Model the fold of this input.
Amino acid sequence: MFPRIAYINRAIYNDLKEEYFDEVTSYDLYHYAKPNPKYYQEILSRHNLKVDEVIFFGNSKKHDIDPASSIGIKSYLVHDEGGISFKEMLEIIKAI
Done:
């Protein structure tokens, strides 16, 4: 878990802008952290969303995909080995 500013700086490093996201989660805003499935449930609850209304992208099967999938969220592994590419992730997002 990191403070919000650390996540923002990491996103900028990866050519992502804060305005691309509705929210950037961090320990100063939430009670749980990955890989606890309650982390994902808290996000859904806070935004009044159902699992079939969201998709999740992560780079770790163990810490991202498995816990999100365990509560029913459609999840994509973004990884050079065994997942989709960053470019494919952007294509999925654009298609929404």
Observations:
- The CA atoms of residues 55 and 76 lie 8 Å apart.
- The chain is about 40% helix and 10% strand.
